[in-house]
Amino acid sequence: MIRWIVSSAIFAIYLLELSSGFKEHEFKKCKDTGFCRRHRTKSGPKFDVLHETASVSGHELRATLRNMDAGKTFNLIVRAHSSGTIRLLLDEDLDPSVTNGTRYRISPEDSVTLPSFETTVTPWKTISKTTKDIVVVSGDVQVTLTFAAFKMLVVVKGKPALSLNSKGLFDMEHFRLKEEGVECDGCWSETFLQFTDSKPHGPEAMSLDIAFPGFEHVYGLPEHATSFALKPTVGGEPYRLYNLDVFEYLDSSPFGLYGSIPMMVAHKVGLTIGVFWLNAAEMFVDVSKEGSNTATQWIAESGIVDLFIFTGPGPAEVQQQYAEVTGPTAMPQQFSVGYHQCRWNYKDEADVHLVDSGFDEHEIPYDVIWLDIEHTNGKRYLTWDSHLFPKPIELQNDVASRGRETVTIVDPHVKRDHSYYIFQEAQSEGYFVKNPQGGDFEGWCWPGSSSYLDVTNPTVRAWWAQQFALDKYQGSTEHLYIWNDMNEPSVFNGPEITMQKDLIHHGNVEHRDVHNLYGLFYHMGTAEGLTLRGYQTHGEDGDRPFVLSRAFFSGTQRVGPIWTGDNTADWKHLAVSIPMLLSLGVTGLPFSGADVGGFFGNPDAELITRWNQLGTYYPFFRGHAHLETQRREPWLFGEPATSRIRAAIRERYALMPYIYTLFRHANISGQPIMRPLWFEFPDAKELFHVEDSFLLGSAILVSPVLQQGVDNVDLVLPKGARWFNAHSGEETQGAGKPVKTKVDMESIPVYYKGGSIVPRRERPRRSTRMQMKDPFTLIVALDGNWSAAGDLYLDDGRSFAFLRGQYTHREFKFEGLKLRSAVHNSGSAVVTSVGSWAPAQDLEVERVVFLGLPKTGKGYTARMPDGTEVSLEAGAASTKFSQAENAWVLRQPKLGVDADWVVELVAHK
Ligand SMILES: *[C@@H]1O[C@H](CO)[C@@H](O)[C@H](O)[C@H]1NC(C)=O
Ligand SMILES: *[C@@H]1O[C@H](CO)[C@@H](O)[C@H](O)[C@H]1NC(C)=O
Ligand SMILES: *[C@@H]1O[C@H](CO)[C@@H](O)[C@H](O)[C@H]1NC(C)=O
Fold it and tell me: Do strands 413-415 and 448-452 pair parallel, antiparallel, or not at all (unpaired)?
C-alpha cells in the first residue's frame, strides 16, 4: 500500500512535469550560482571614497574608491548629461601586465549605445566639499557623494530619487591570481548538473544596492513572465537576466527568458525615474519593499559598473532619456504593423497558396506568411527543401502580387556539413565561436552538430550581412524578410540549453561577458543584411529591414521587433502577455508581441477569439503554432468565431494610421506604443498596479477579456477624463470607480479617451499596402472642455526616404468648436525640419465623427474652408455610432490631409 502511494506520487510528479513541460531543474537558481550566493543580501566589505581624490573637473566628478579590507582601488566617474541623465562608471584600477587584460566593458563602438550620447555631457557645479562628502549639481539634479562609507544620493527637483549603497550591499570583487590561493565560493570553477564552468579569470562579480525612497512601485527588467509592477522577491528567487531558450515557460516566474534589458523604472506621484545598467553578463535582481520605499540589489557576474540614472521627471522623459542612450525604435516596414500568419510549418508551396487564398476567401486582411525551419534543406538556413519548395521565387512573387510579403526563419547555429556553403566559408574564415582550447565550438541544435557564428565580431556580422544579397541567398526575392530564432543562443546539449560561459569570442572575450548581447548582435547582422539588400534592389532610399528576433538586449529596438517566445494556449498565458509587453514598452522595446493563440497546445474557439481581440492592440500581431498542434487559421473555428476574428483583425487595419503614427513617436522620442495606465495618469495611485488593461498610445484604452466564459469584466476607467465606448460611441459614466461592464463574444471593451483625435481607415482591404490610397476617418473624442487633439504621420511605409523629409506629419486640434489641421510640430530636437510626402496631397478625410459634443436640440452645421455649410448627421444612421447621444458625423468633407484648414461647427439655436 505504502509502496503504491509512493510510486503513484512519483508518477504524479512525472505527469505534472510532462503536462507543465517546464523543466525547472535544468535551470540555475541563485543557490546554484556562486556569484549570487556570494552577494545576495550580504553586506559587502567597507568601501570608502578617498576624500582627497574627489573632485570635479568639467564634465566629470572623479574619485578613487577603495576596498578598505582588501586595499584594492577602483576609479569612479560620475557624469551629467544635458537631458537629465546621470552616468556612474566604476572600473578596477588594474595593471594589465599582471592581469592579462581588463574587465569587459561595452563601448560605443559595439553599437549597443549611441556614440552621440557621449557628446551630451554637461558640466557639474560643485556646491560644497568637506572631508565627509561632495555635493554637485547639474540642472535639476543634485548628487551627494558620501566618502566613508561610500554612498551616493540623487535628488531631483529637491526630491530624493535614488540612493546607492544605503544598505551597505555594494561590492565589486577585485582581480586576483589563482596562486594567491584565496578560498572563495564558486570563484575558480563551478559545476551545475554535468556541466563545469572553468573560470580562468576568477571572481569579478559586482553587487549594486539601489534604493528608491518613497517609491512603492518599480517596473521593467524584461523578460519575465510575471506581474508588471515587480513583486518583492524576499524568500523567493530574484529576477534573473540571462537569455535562455526555456521550453514551455511558466506564466508566473522570475526565471530568465529569451531576452534581457537591465532597465528598471520607478514611479510615484510627482516623479518617475529609471535605472539602466549597461552590462551583458548574467544578472540577478532582488526587489524588497520597506514601507513606502523600494530597495533593490543587482548582482552581475562580470564586467564593470556603467550605470545610467534617468531623472525624468515624468514617464515620457524617462523613455526619451533611455532612447538617447540606446537609440529610439526604428521606423518599421508598414506591412509589419499588419497581421502575420505563422505556423511551424506551412508544409509546402500548395499549403502556402491555400492559406493565402483562405484569407481572401474569408475576407480577412493579412500582410505576411511565415515559413519555419521545415522549409530548409535539412535546417541549412538560406536554403530550400527542393521537394517542398521547388519554386520559392514564384511563390514569393505570387504572394507579393496581392500586396503581401513572405518571411523565412534563419538561425545562428550552422550545420557542420562541409558541403554547405555557409559552413564552409565560415569555417575557413574562422568565423565561429571558439571553445577554450581554441577549436570551433560544436553544439547540438536543430540540424544536429552545429557551430555558431561569432557575431560579436563586426567582421563576421559584415560577412553575414552579405549573405542576404539576392544573388547569395538563392530563392530569395525583395519580398522576403527574415525571422531570427534560437539566438539566445540555444544549444540543446549545453548548460541551461545555451553556451558554456568559458567559450571564447572575438578579442579573447569570454562568453560570460557577452552572453546577453549575442542575440542582439545576430539580429543586427541579419537586419544589416536586409538593409544592404534594400539599397541593392531599391536604390538610394533603400528598403527598411524587417527581422523578428527572439533574443534581445538594450538596443534591439533600433534593429527590429521581438516576440515573447514559446507561450502556451491557455488563459493564463493570454493574461501574462499584457504585463510582459508593458514591461518591454517601458524599457524602450515597444515593437513586441506574444504569439496569438499560444504556441503550444490547442486553443478552443473562445480562447482564439479573445486572443485575436487582444492581439489587435499588440504592437506586433502574429498568430503562430507548434508543429504538433491542430491547424488554426482564423476560419477553421467555424462561425461565429471566424466572423469575430475577422472583425478583430479588420479593426487592427482600421487603426493602422493611428498605430503607425505611434511608431513614429517611438521613432522620434522612444515613447511606448502599448502603455500602462499610469503613463498617461501619473498621479492616479489606484492605477499603479493595473496590468489587465492598458492604453494603446494615449488615446485608446483596452480592457481585454482574460477569463473563460465571463459575461462581464471589472473595469476601472481613470478619472479626470471622459471615455467613449469605441464600438458604440457612447460616453461611459463613472470613471474612477470599478464598474462591472457587460461583455459578449463579439468584442472586448475599448474606449477612446476624451481629448483625443484618432485617424482611421475604414475600408476593408487585403493588406496594408492596399490601404495606401484610402481616405481617412477622424474620430474626434472631446474632453470636458470640448477640446481634442491628435496627429497623423504618413510616409511610403517602406523606404528610408522619410529620413530626408519624405513624410507628412499633421496635427489636428479641436477647440472652441473649430477643427484645425496644421503641420505637426514634433517638439523634438532630432526632427526639426518639416517633411513633405507628395502622395499625401491626394489623400482626403472622408468623414469626421465627433463624440461628446455639447448637447443641442437642433444639431450642428459645419462651416467648411470654402465657405459652404454642411449639416452634421446625428449619430449618422449608417455608422456604428447611430445610437450614441451627442455623436455627430460630418460626411464627405473633402478635406485634404496635407492641407491647412479650419472647419467651424455652429450649433443650431
Ligand atoms: C595570462 O595568459 C596566459 C596565456 O593565455 C596564461 O597562461 C596565464 O595563466 C594568464 N595569467 C593570468 C594571471 O591570468
Ligand atoms: C527612426 O528610424 C530610423 C530607421 O528606420 C533611424 O535611422 C532613425 O535614427 C530613427 N529616429 C529618427 C528620429 O529618425
Ligand atoms: C479644461 O480647461 C481648464 C482651464 O484651461 C484646465 O485647467 C483643465 O485641465 C481642462 N480640462 C481638461 C479635461 O482638459
Answer: antiparallel
Query: What pLDDT, on the 0 to 100 scale, is given for residue 604?
Result: 98
Q: Is position 171 annotated as part of the catalytic site? A: no
Find out whether the beta carbon of 784 lies less than 6 Å from any atom of ligand 3: yes
pTM of the model: 0.96
Please give the helix or strand (H or E) that residue 481 lies within, else none.
strand 480-484
3-state DSSP assignment of residue 809:
strand
Pairing mode of beta strands 562-563, 592-593:
parallel
Distance, in Å, from the CA atom of 568 to the CA atom of 652, rounded to the nearest integer, reads: 23
485 included as an active-site residue? yes
Residue from 94, 97, 100 to probe ligand 1 pocket by mutation (most atoms less than 8 Å from CB): 100
Q: Ligand 1 centre and the CA of 302: distance in Å?
A: 18
> Are 646 and 363 spatial neighbours (Cβ–Cβ below 8 Å)?
yes
Instruction: List pLDDT tens digits, range 277-327.
Output: 999 999 999 999 999 999 999 999 999 999 999 999 999 999 999 999 999
Tell me how far apart the alpha carbons of residues 408 and 825 are, in angstroms, rounded to a whole number: 39
Between the CA of 662 and the centroid of ligand 2 the distance, in Å, is 14
The alpha carbon of 907 and the centre of ligand 3 are apart by a number of angstroms equal to: 22
Please give the Cα distance from 528 to 797 (Å, whole number).
Answer: 18
Query: Per residue in 98-128, is it b (16+ CB within 10 Å) or e — as a string?
Result: eeeeebbebeeebbbbbeebeebbeebeeee
Longest CA pairwise span in the chain (Å)? 94
Q: Is the pLDDT of residue 795 over 70?
A: yes
Mean pLDDT (whole number) for 837-860: 93
Q: What structural domains does the chain harbor?
A: 33-221+261-326 (2.60.40.1760), 341-654 (3.20.20.80), 677-907 (2.60.40.1180)
Grouping H, G, I as helix, E, B as strand and the rest as coil, residue 641 is helix
- Determine whether 488 is an active site residue: yes
Q: Is the C-beta atom of 198 inside 6 A of ligand 1?
A: no
Asked if residue 101 has its Cβ within 6 Å of ligand 1, the reply is: no
> How many residues does this entry show for the chain?
909
**Which of 245, 488, 528, 595 is flagged as catalytic?**
488
Summarised one tens digit per residue, pLDDT across range 328-359 is 999 999 999 999 999 999 999 999 999 999 99
* pLDDT at residue 183 is higher than 90: no
Nearest CA to ligand 3 atom 13: 784
Nearest-CA residue for atom 11 of ligand 1: 100
pLDDT at 8: 40
Q: State how far the Cα of 782 lies from the Cα of 735, in Å rounded to an integer.
A: 15
At 861-903, the pLDDT tens digits run 999 999 999 999 987 655 688 888 889 999 999 999 999 999 9
> Mutation test of ligand 2: which of 326, 331, 333, 669 has the most ligand atoms closer than 8 Å to its C-beta?
331
Under the banding of pLDDT at 50, 70 and 90, the label for residue 428 is: very high
φ/ψ (deg, to 5) at 352: -60, -45
